[in-house]
Each structure stands twice: as C-alpha cells, then as structure tokens.
Design brief:
The chain has about 300 residues and is an alpha/beta fold. The chain folds into two domains: about 150 residues, Rossmann fold, CATH 3.40.50; about 140 residues, Rossmann fold. Helix 3 links the parallel strand 6 and strand 7. The longest helix has 16 residues. The chain is elongated and about 60 Å long.
Length: about 300
C-alpha cells in the first residue's frame, strides 16, 4: 500500500490538483479521479473512481458557490465512508468569510454555519483537518468543531514576492483600501522594508463612502494597494483615486483572492488607474481571467509542505 497522499479536486480546482502533483517532490502526491455529471433535475452524480481505502486523502475545493460547497462536502463524506485513513480538506477560498459576525438583529453568520456543515463530516480513522488561506477574519478557524482541525495558511511569502516584483526600483508605499486591513498591511510593509499607508473613510449610507484623509506621504511614490480579496473593485478604485490626488506617481493592486464577478476586472482595467493587477490562484476565476492581463501566482508551493507531511 502506497503512503502517497491521494489528491482529488472538485471540477473548478483541477488546475490546482495538476500543479500540486507536478510540483510534489519525488512524485509524493497521486492524482485521484472523480466522476461527476448532472441529472436533468439539477442533481448531480458523484463517484470516487480511484479507491481511497487506507489512503491519506486530500480534497481540493473552494466554497466559491453553494453547489461547489455541497460537492466538496459530499465527496468528503464519501471518502470517509469508503475508508480514507486521513482526510485533508483544502479550501483556498472560503466563501462568506465577510459574514463572520452579526451586525444587525437576525443576520445569519454564514461563515459559521458553513464551518458547522464541514464539521459534520464523519471522522476518518486518523482524523480530519482543513487548510484555509488568508481569511478575512482571524476567528473563522475557531468555528470548526467536532474534531475537524483548522489550519490558517498565510500567503505572505507570495504576496511579498508580488510586492517586490511590482515595486521594482521605485520608491514604494504599501497601502490598503481602509483602516480595517492596516495591521496586516503594516506587517507586510515591515517585512518588505517599505512605508505603509491607509485611508480614512466616512460612510454616508450603505452604498456611498467618502475618503477623508491618507495617513502617509505618497507624493512621487509608487503605491501598491493590498487587500485580502478583490470582488467588484469599488473600494479599490475609490482608494486609488485618493492616492493619485495625493500625488502618487503610479498604482498597482494586489490581492490574495481574485474573485472578480461579472465584469469587475474589465472595469478595473478600463479605469486605467493601475499599471498592474495581481493575485493568487486561490479562486478559479483568477485563472480564467489571466489571459486578459491579470498577473496570477500559484498557491501550490505554499500548500505542498502541509500535504507531504509524513503521517505515522
């Protein structure tokens, strides 16, 4: 019986399965095959084609939508049922991460309810764990229960590399779109050896905010904006314009999770505010949009050390 972990992926994450297995040292990971197809009523057929009995099983899949979430859950339950020795869920993009607490009465803390769903997966004989990446809120790993051990994998090495590449020989300021990410941006800036900056906002209503101040001198400098995720890009554009008004010589944007729904990337590119926009491939949308000029870095090297651990 081989000790190599067996790696499966939901359809959206086949690119990550291929990258991990290709980069694993000495062929240390084996790609598993899944059969899936939809039924006319919208239900779907799933089968773990590669036998999992006695194997350490890795399941790759983001909670990028409800269907993908349930596919990941169903496959995980199936892997344990058919005898997986140890189960590792890899969720590079954890959807609903911004719904980590209730602000108004009656709001559902969806980040917590999704964690409860995955915590209901039966335990494999050597246990279950989940790998999560650059979460919007640090407390989310504590939502997982019932023996499902959560690990927060930080993408800092990749982000720092992007900052250095996009900064080049310029005098760089690392900035964020609001004060909420200030500590994380300050930590990144200190590691790279550049100045950190953030903006102050005044919210007028649910849809409109006004930037009132910037806390650093950016005149004549290249400003690189970092956020954990880019969705519609509205806050990014607002902050970018504020930094340009403050005298920034050029702008670039970096995110861990490039979600870019609809025409979000197109609008960012059409704004002509940014010389470069970069992110990791934690969300499959980034790989889809790379041909349009989005710079994309693979998260596979960050995950490999966790997946090639020797399990005794």
């Amino acid at each position: 019986m081989t000790n190599r972990p067996l790696v499966f992926a939901t359809p959206e994450y086949h690119y990550l399965q291929a990258a991990l297995c290709a980069q694993a040292r000495d062929g240390g990971l084996e790609a598993g095959e899944i059969a899936t197809h939809p039924f006319p009523d919208g239900e779907r057929y799933l089968r773990l084609v590669t036998p999992v009995a006695g194997r350490d099983v890795v399941l790759l899949g983001g909670t990028i939508d409800d269907a993908s979430t349930l596919t990941l859950f169903d496959l995980a339950c199936g892997a344990v049922h058919y005898g997986a020795r140890r189960l590792t869920l890899v969720i590079p993009y954890y959807g609903y991460a911004t719904m980590e607490r209730a602000v108004k009465p009656g709001e559902v803390v969806t980040a917590k309810t999704r964690a409860a769903l995955f915590s209901a997966i039966p335990p494999a004989s050597y246990g279950n764990r989940v790998l999560l990446m650059d979460l919007h809120a640090e407390g989310i790993p504590h939502y997982f229960e019932a023996g499902l051990v959560a690990h927060h994998v930080y993408c800092k090495p990749l982000i720092k590399q992007m900052i250095r590449e996009l900064g080049g020989d310029h005098d760089v300021v690392l900035a964020c779109t609001d004060a909420g990410r200030a500590k994380w941006v300050e930590s990144l800036a200190n590691d790279v050896g550049v100045t950190a900056a953030f903006v102050f906002k005044r919210r007028h209503d649910g849809a409109h905010t006004e930037i009132t101040a910037i806390d650093a001198q950016v005149a004549g400098k290249r400003v690189i904006l970092y956020d954990d995720m880019i969705r519609t890009g509205g806050s990014l554009i607002g902050a970018a314009r504020a930094y340009l008004r403050a005298g920034a010589s050029s702008l670039a944007a970096i995110a861990t999770h490039g979600v870019f729904p609809g025409d979000a990337l197109h609008r960012l590119l059409e704004s002509r505010l940014f010389t470069d926009i970069a992110c990791t491939d934690s969300h499959p949308r980034a790989r889809e949009l790379a041909p349009l000029g989005l710079r994309v870095a693979s998260i596979a090297p960050l995950l490999l050390p966790f997946l090639q651990e020797q399990v005794l």
